[in-house]
Design a protein that fits this description.
Largest sheet: 7 strands, mixed
Number of helices: 22
Shape: extended
Structural class: alpha/beta
Radius of gyration: 34 Å
Strand content: 15-25%
Number of strands: 19
Helix content: 40-55%
Distance between the termini: 111 Å
Length: 639
Amino acid sequence: MSIKSLQEYVSKGLFYEAVVEDGSDIIFIVDYHGNILYHNPSVEDTLGHAPDSLIGKNFFDFIKPETLTDLKKEFLKSVSKPYDESIEFRFLCKDKTYRYLEFNSINLKHKGGVEGLILDCRDITQRKKDAQELLRAQKAKEQFLANMSHEIRTPVNGIAGMINLLSETTSTEDRELYLNAIKNSTQSLKVIINDILDLSAIESGKLKFEKIGFNIKYQLSAVLDTFLYTSKDKGIVLTYNITEEAKSVFIGDPARLNQILINLISNAVKFTHVGEISVNVDVEKIEKNIRYVRFKVKDTGVGIPTKKINHIFDSFTQADASVTRRFGGTGLGLTIVKELIELQDGMIEVESEVNTGTTFTFVIPYETGKEKDLIQPKSSDFKKTLKHSLTGLKVLLVEDNDVNRLYANSILTKWDCEVNTAENGMVAIERLKSQKFDIVLMDVQMPIMDGYEATRKIRRSTESIKNIPIIALTANAIKGDVDKCLEAGMNDYISKPFHPETLFKTISKYIAAGKINIEDVSEPISKGSLTNLDYLRKVCDGDKKFMNEMIQTFISNTPIAINEMQHWSNESNWEMVGKTAHKMKPSITFVGLEKAKTLIKELETYGKESIHTDRIPAKINDLSNLCQKALTELKAIEL
């Protein structure tokens, strides 16, 4: 049959075959009870059912059971309307799986006077998957940001607190304890910040790798030293072995190797409670001047479930969602490890067995180097301090972080409080039932039972404890946290990191005035023409011995740093000039050498960005002269 015009094509109804029979949409014709009178061949293409095989069956028999009630309600609405659209449902396929479909309906009673519906259905399975994945990613990032608020502020609070305690103690044993706590908190903070910055650099393609000489044994020893305290404290044996071939000089990026090792060993320490952690290094193969160095980090820890092992390198993901809450971390560590290794043309793999342990093995090709490639390694005249006393105040400190618990406990003990501690909300409630306390300092984010739930339970408890003052002491800083604490029944809120003065003032609002004693002590401060030690006195809280140690460190290290900077300048290694300047910034601030701050900032910027390099030698010379005068001044100071 020859068709001469589009009008004839339409008038003869030939579009029916193109649109309905051969179209990609699934077409059902059903009566008002759901009985199927017709379906087109697309049912086979999309759902697997043979042509005409569903005719005479009921549409609802193929709907996912748990969604059937909701769909029937929508179907009844369609029966009452001439047209309906975007009704989602899940239909049973021939292979017993369910696919997401969506129908638009035409009510034939309004068109031809018969009780039936034409359902024009489209497959939206991929759209649903995309939406679910987007939602999952959004939730993961939201959780990530919430965790970061907590994870960053927790070590900052620990560091600030331990410095205050360190400046006040005279006990060698306490100093060692506080220094180790500072070291651990600093390492945690460094890992978190590096993770965030590195992921950003990797995703933007701006991450650069150095090519300098280094020795793996030296690098690995330095990395393991940072974990000796933690592993010893947990009773874990930490060992390493390097073959002779792997002790050669290599050309590459030792800082990135350190980062990889720190992430993997940190994970091993986190999840190993009994046994040992071993690090083995050897050379897998040699091709011309390239050695493929293999690293193996093995632990006897909790292991990773088989179904989750393929996802541990995904962004914002950990094998167990409760890991962040129990152990902290960004959930980015292994993602970055994998990226860093692969960007250096390496590879990483993992083997794990639950309750037996995990082994990460990675290989990075390094160019062989030689020994010569190694890089050898205005204020008031008086400062007022406050001596506080809260003699006999019975405090329940609820805090799961060891460093923060030590910090708060030490401050409260110094104020003559009687302190009892609990590591989570459940333990806190039991303590309150068995002992009498005047006040509760409650952390918010804790395992087993968090601070919110614990507070709500306390407020619903017996008369003897339901009205006890509860102060939230938390690292959370997301907007709305204050309201959330007050809604849970807490009386007040202190955000970490906190200063002892803030803690004292807040506690003072909720206890009897007779327990509070404040004594002012004034101390003269000497001034110098170049340096100003006011900031150092504030940090050290007037501890002259500690101040003297800080000054002596500046006196010892500054000439070395200046010499380093001049060396890198002579080598035209501007990046290292910038890095050395950056390292000097804190010490310049500590001694109040204001005139050097601009020079240091310029040298850091010029070196980092390789700009105005012709000015760098003169700037270094100016800095050297200024520091020399400051050193002479500081040596003459008597504290």
